Amino acid sequence: MLAFITKNLNDIIYLSLLLICVFVGPYYRKLDTIESKKWAGSILGILLIIIVSGNGASHPIMSGLMGISIIKTDTIKRCHVTTFFFMFGYLFVFRLGYLIGLPPSSGQTNLIEMIIVLRVVGVAFEMNGSWLAVAEAKKKELDSTKAESKLPTERDDDFLELINPEFIDLFHYTFNYIGLLTGPYYRYRTFNDYFHLPYSKYVDCFGFTINILRMVPLYISLYLAFSNLWPLEYILTEEHNNSHFLYRMLYPWALFAAFRQRIYSGMTLAESVCSSAGLGAYPVQGRNRTGHGPTVGYLKLKKMSDKEAQMAEYDFKTVESMDVWGCETVVTLRESMKVWNKAVQYWVAMVVYKRFPVNNLKMHAALFVSVIWHGFHAGYFFCIYFCPFYVMAEDIYYKLYYKDATGMKKKIIGFIMWFLRSHSESYQAAAFLLLTFDRVWIYYSSVYHYWYGVWLSFLILGLILNKVRAMLQPKQPRVSKTDTLKE
Question: Exposed site from 4, 153, 191, 196, fewest CB < 10 Å?
Answer without folding.
Answer: 196
